[in-house]
Design brief:
Blueprint (H helix, E strand, L loop, with lengths): L5 E3 L2 E3 L3 E3 L8 H10 L3 E3 L3 E2 H11 L10 H9 L5 H14 L4 E7 L6 H9 L4 E6 L10 H18 L4 E5 L6 H9 L5 E4 L5 E5 L4 E5 L8 H11 L6 E5 L5 H10 L3 E4 L1 H6 L2 H16 L20 H17 L1
Parallel strand pairs: 3-4, 3-13, 4-6, 5-6, 6-7, 7-8, 8-9, 9-12, 12-13
Antiparallel strand pairs: 1-2, 10-11
Helix pairs in contact: 8-9, 9-11
The protein binds flavin mononucleotide.
Flavin mononucleotide binds next to strand 6, strand 13 and helix 10.
């Protein structure tokens, strides 16, 4: 029978299916459920830089420097069940209760406040750190280079201060993603998670307010990460984790064929329960057996751009083929 085991960020995983950072894995119960369902690893729900800042300033007897309502707003909006200290407890308890790797997650926009905390995350026993770099480029005065430099500053500070293997989770909005991904991956991180799914913005025209919609992804959203995994595989010095819109075994297989080292899933579990993990793994095994693949490395990246003889022509031809296909 096919061997699903793989490595990611220097860790051994029994399979490439990771439960993405979310409320599914915000407590030991959820983490144990993830392991029982068969997941290869979990990425804990993120702790936010703003929460660490509040805690740090409180400890130092300082007045919170953010907007007065910001902290309460973040806590209530996100229904966060833990602050920094409880997060550390969650990591250390999880490490005694499950055997699968536990990846901590910090959501940040700058290298301030959370670096010394990240050392405690390391001491608490986390196996790796996923940094969710959620910088919305709203400032018209900033160039794309300015914004990329902000990302690189965070990555450098993290790399200089933390020994844990680091993966960086980013959104898709970059002018020259290949170049920038190459730069990030040359800065000492081990993994790149493509792509973060941002809050889906909408406006309630009766209440006159901004609201969030479509909390869960749709399978059609996967094509963006599929394309970029395929383009970046073997072109950058990082392992690639695919996320957003991966709902079933076929989607997982496609991402692996494109070059993903692992996949991270959340929405399909919210919609179908943890049993979907077992179903995906069973269908992945069947598919590998049918195609006589003994291990994942036998087919990982087989349909990546790097395997095409003439990558530029390949991309262009797919595009032309797609457009002419519409008329048929
Ligand atoms: C309810 C919910 C909570 C989430 N919380 C986090 C979080 O704390 N940190 C993070 O990096 N991503 C978070 N995400 C994003 C997921 O990790 C994942 O990247 C995204 O949902 C796309 O994957 P999917 O299509 O399988 O849902 C959350 C997603 C959902 C649905």
């Amino acid at each position: 029978m096919a061997d699903l085991s793989t490595s990611y960020l220097g860790l051994h995983l029994k399979n490439p299916l990771i439960i993405a950072s979310s409320t599914l894995v915000q407590n030991v119960k959820g983490i144990k459920e993830a392991e029982a369902a068969g997941a290869g690893a979990v990425v804990l729900r993120s702790l936010f830089e703003e929460i660490i800042r509040e805690e740090t300033q409180k400890q130092q007897g300082e007045v919170y420097s953010g907007h007065p309502e910001e902290y309460d707003y973040i806590l209530s909006e996100l229904n966060l069940q833990y602050g920094p200290q409880n997060y550390l407890k969650l990591i250390s308890e999880a490490k005694t209760k499950v055997k699968i790797p536990v990846v901590a997650s910090i959501n940040c926009t700058s290298p301030k406040w959370w670096l010394s905390y990240a050392k405690q995350v390391e001491q608490a026993g986390a196996d790796a750190l996923e940094l969710n770099l959620s910088l919305m480029p709203t400032d018209p005065g900033k160039t794309s280079l300015d914004i990329e430099q902000e990302f690189l500053n965070v990555i450098k500070a993290a790399r200089d201060n933390i020994k844990l293997p680091i993966a960086v989770k980013i959104g898709p909005y970059f002018t020259s993603l290949s170049r920038f991904a190459n730069q990030m991956c040359g800065s000492g991180i081990k993994g790149l998670v493509l792509f973060n799914r941002f809050y889906q913005f909408d406006i309630d025209i009766d209440q006159n307010e901004i609201v969030g919609v479509n909390w869960y992804s749709h399978p059609s959203e996967m094509s963006l990460s599929l394309r970029w995994i395929s383009i970046l595989y073997r072109h950058i010095n990082c392992e690639l984790a695919a996320t957003t819109g991966i709902h079933d075994a076929k989607a997982v297989i496609k991402q692996l064929l494109a070059g993903a080292q692992v996949v991270e899933i959340a929405s399909t579990i919210y919609l179908n329960g943890f049993t979907v993990v077992k179903k995906i793994l069973s269908e992945l095994t069947t598919w590998m057996d049918q195609h006589h693949y003994q291990k994942i490395s036998d087919f990982r990246g087989k349909l990546s751009l790097s395997k095409q003889k003439n990558p530029e022509l390949y991309e262009r031809l797919q595009y032309i083929k797609a457009l002419t296909g519409i008329e048929k």
